[in-house]
Amino acid sequence: MCKMDKIYPFNFLIVLFLLIEFNIEAQMYDKEYINTIRLMTYNTHYCKGGSDPGKIDMNNTRKLAQVIKALDADVVALQELDSASRGREYRYLLKQIADATGIEYIDIYGNADTFDHGASLGCGVLVKKTIPIKNRKLISLPGDEKRVAVYVELEDFVFVGTHFDLNDMKRIEGAKELCRYVREESKPVFLAGDLNDSHYWKSGGIAFPILLEDFEIISDVEGGSLSGRSDNGGLIDYVLLKRNSSRGIQVRQSCIVRELSIDGAGVDMGMLSDHYPVFVDVNIKGSRK
C-alpha cells in the first residue's frame, strides 16, 4: 500500500488522500511533482543481503546502492553501518554506498559505538550535493549498544536520521531526548529511521506515545517494513514530521518498497536487506532543489 497526497497542517483542507493497492508488479515510483524532495530511510543490514549470516562484499553493497539510485532519493537515513573494521576490509560503508549509487551525495556518518578493535558501528545520512547543508550535529542517545541521531540542518528543513535501541527503557529515553532537542526548532523537522518500535503495538508502542506528542507519522503504514512481514506489527521503519513545523508542507506520496524495477527487472527488496526501504515525497513551500 502507498499513502498519497496530504496537506498539513490538519486544520487546512485535505485536498487528496488516497490509499492504493500495492501492485505485485515491480514499480518505478517516479516523482510526480515539480520540486519534490524524496526523503528515505533504509536499514542496510550491513549490506550482507536479506538473510543471516549473509555475505559482506562489494557486490551486495552495489545492489543496495542501486535501490537508492533507482528511487532517486534526495536525503537518505541509513542504519547498520560500519567503519574501519579489520574483519570487513576496513571499509567505510556509508561512503561505499554513496559512491556506488553514482549520485553525488554528501555523506554524514554518526559514529555510535566501538566495534572490532577500534572500528565503529553507527548510522548515517546522505544528502544530494544540490541541497545546501547549513549545519550538522550528532546527538548521543542511550542504548545497550550506544546510539546516535544524525541531525542535518538544510536550507528549508531539518532532517534527523537515527536507529533506536532494542532496550525498551533506553528507547523511551532516546525518544524523550530527541523530542527535547528539536522542540524549539522553527524549521520543519523530519525524523527518519529504524525506530525498533511500532505505533501498532499494544498501548501504541513503547516509545511511540512519546514521539507522537511532538511528531506525526507521514510515511506509509500499511503492512510491515521488515522483510517477509506483511502484518502491521512488523512496521518499525518510519518518517515522522514535527507537528508545529508542518505549515507549508505537502506530503505527496509514501511507500514501503517491497519490489522495485531496476534496469527493467523486478527486484525483491527482501533479497537485499532484512528491512524494506521507506520513502516519502514532500513539497516544501518556497523550496527549490
Automatic annotation (TrEMBL):
This entry's Gene Ontology molecular function terms read: catalytic activity
Q: Which superkingdom heads the taxonomic lineage of this protein's source? A: Bacteria
A Pfam family in this protein? Exo_endo_phos
Per the record, GO CC terms? membrane
Any single biological process term in GO: GPI anchor biosynthetic process
Q: Which residues form the signal peptide?
A: none
UniProt xrefs under InterPro entries: Endo/exonu/phosph_ase_sf (IPR036691), Endo/exonuclease/phosphatase (IPR005135), GPI-anchor_lipid_remodeler (IPR051916)
Which positions fall inside the Endonuclease/exonuclease/phosphatase domain? 40-243
Please give the name of this protein: Endonuclease/exonuclease/phosphatase domain-containing protein
Organism in which the protein naturally occurs = Coprobacter secundus subsp. similis
